[in-house]
Write a sequence for this structure.
């Protein structure tokens, strides 16, 4: 009976690892398929519209069946929060990310996306959601990680260096329409793509900061919040596409790679990944989930060299190493901060009394504590003790690329 128990425990403990590794493969596949679709001439504005239309169609039914009760009232401030979230995520973030992906390569784009924790930390400091205490090691780690991450991004942007040859690249001959033209990409286009990816990551970080406030309203209705953001983002993306694209032919889509790219991105990276990542965050926390993001960059580099014959430059490799090092430094600081916050929780008071020789315990708030102290002084019949109740941190879901 011990072997099945040990095996079942192993499977239970391994589920978060398998889930996050599978999720990174899903993200990597999205980057490769999207790059192929963009190389074949699909407009990234139209791709954003179709992606979030698919995402809305998939998430909305689940939100209706599971969260239709006690929906929060959509007041004007709440609507503006959802409107800005949709503008930052589906519109600004995705359009700039796809444009940067078109001018650079999937591996480069994934590496630049790893700047997200550092940028989120900077945005939180600006919005006074994070306090800087340079006397603590955790704060020093977050600041140092942010500086190293920015240095790695600048190195990838300004320095390309020689091409790093893969062992198998000599024997791979993909279709010409799939090939990523990184060697022929001009330095100006590469630099422009780097700037676009940086703006996309900055918008993504801003979305995290605002989402933290919106989740207070939709604490028990996260699927509903995601559905609303995707739906309003689809409408905003349609308006942007009408302004930027004037040819009706760009909206045409058939049963080809363009349809696969839109459906895959909407269903896998905007729907399934949201659910899986939310489960993992609730069980292991956001630090555990975010720590797997560099794995996507490695998977994309391998898949890109096979499918797209992607050329990887030395500057990208060195910059990616710095970005990953800075990423883990920031995550380590956040992890330590979370542990310290749990240790410093304000104790809650409980009161106990004896009725017919039986101990009865109930929870008290601050006013009850003061009243209880007065009663203790008068009758000395009640006693109070203090216990520490750690409150788990509310997970923040990271929208997938």
């Amino acid at each position: 009976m011990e072997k099945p128990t040990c095996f079942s425990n192993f499977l239970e403990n391994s589920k978060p690892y398998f889930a996050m590794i599978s999720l990174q493969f899903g993200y990597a596949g999205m980057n490769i398929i999207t790059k192929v679709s963009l190389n074949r001439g699909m407009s990234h504005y139209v791709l954003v519209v179709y992606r979030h239309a698919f995402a809305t169609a998939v998430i909305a039914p689940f939100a209706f069946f599971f969260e239709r009760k006690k929906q929060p009232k959509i007041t004007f401030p709440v609507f503006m929060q959802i409107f800005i979230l949709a503008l930052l995520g589906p519109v600004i973030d995705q359009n700039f990310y796809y444009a940067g992906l078109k001018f650079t390569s999937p591996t480069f784009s994934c590496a630049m996306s790893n700047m997200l924790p550092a940028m989120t930390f900077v945005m939180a400091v600006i919005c006074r959601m994070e306090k800087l205490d340079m006397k603590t090691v955790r704060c020093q780690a977050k600041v140092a990680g942010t500086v190293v991450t920015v240095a790695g991004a600048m190195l990838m942007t300004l320095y390309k260096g020689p091409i790093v040859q893969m062992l198998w690249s000599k024997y791979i001959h993909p279709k010409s329409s799939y090939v990523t033209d990184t060697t022929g990409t001009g330095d100006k286009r590469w630099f422009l793509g780097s700037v676009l990816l940086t703006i996309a990551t900055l918008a993504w970080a801003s979305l995290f900061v605002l989402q933290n406030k919106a989740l207070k309203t939709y604490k028990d209705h996260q699927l509903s919040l995601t559905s609303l953001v995707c739906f309003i983002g689809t409408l905003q993306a349609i308006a942007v596409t009408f302004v930027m694209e004037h040819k009706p032919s760009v909206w045409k889509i058939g049963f080809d790679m363009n349809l696969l790219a839109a459906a895959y991105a909407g269903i896998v990276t905007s729907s399934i990944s949201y659910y899986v990542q939310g489960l993992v965050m609730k069980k292991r926390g956001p630090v555990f989930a975010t720590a797997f993001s560099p794995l996507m960059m490695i998977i994309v580099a391998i898949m890109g060299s096979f499918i797209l014959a992607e050329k990887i430059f030395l500057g990208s490799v060195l910059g990616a190493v710095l970005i990953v090092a800075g990423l883990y430094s920031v995550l380590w600081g956040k992890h330590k901060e979370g542990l310290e916050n749990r240790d410093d929780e304000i104790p809650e008071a409980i009161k106990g009394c004896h009725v017919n020789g039986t101990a009865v315990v109930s929870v008290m708030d601050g006013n009850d504590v003061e009243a209880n102290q007065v009663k203790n002084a008068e009758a000395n019949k009640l006693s109070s003790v203090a216990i520490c109740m750690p409150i788990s941190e509310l997970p923040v879901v990271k929208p997938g690329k």
